[in-house]
Amino acid sequence: MRPPAVARAALIREALVHYLAQPDDSATSTTAHALGADLFGRHAGPVDLASTRKQAWADAVDTKRPRSAR
Question: What is the residue-level pLDDT of the chain in tens, covering all 70 positions?
Fold first, then answer.
C-alpha cells in the first residue's frame, strides 16, 4: 500500500521546520571549506587559463590536427 501523497510545499515546509528547530552549535557545524578541503588544489593547470583560454584551445587543437601551411 502506498503512503498518502504529500504536496511538495508541505514537505519542504516540514523539512525546514525540523532543520531550523535544530540548535545552532557553531563548534560542530561544518563549513563549505571543511567539506571540500580534500578537493581543493587537486587539479593543476595553467595559472592564467582564464585570460588565455582561446590560445590554449587553439594550441590543443593544433597539437591534435596541425594546420596546413598557408
Answer: 677 788 899 999 999 999 889 887 665 668 888 888 888 877 777 677 677 888 888 888 888 777 665 4
Q: Quick one: CA torsion of 41, 42, 45, 49, rounded to 10 degrees?
A: -50
The span from the CA of 7 to the CA of 26, in Å, is: 33
- Residue 27 CA to chain centroid, in angstroms? 25
- The set of cell numbers assigned to 14 is 516540514
Contact indicator for 36, 46 with CB cutoff of 8 Å:
no
| pTM summary value | 0.33
Q: Which three cell numbers stand for residue 51?
A: 585570460
CA distance 38 to 29: 18
> How far apart (Å, rounded) are the C-alpha atoms in residues 60 and 57?
5
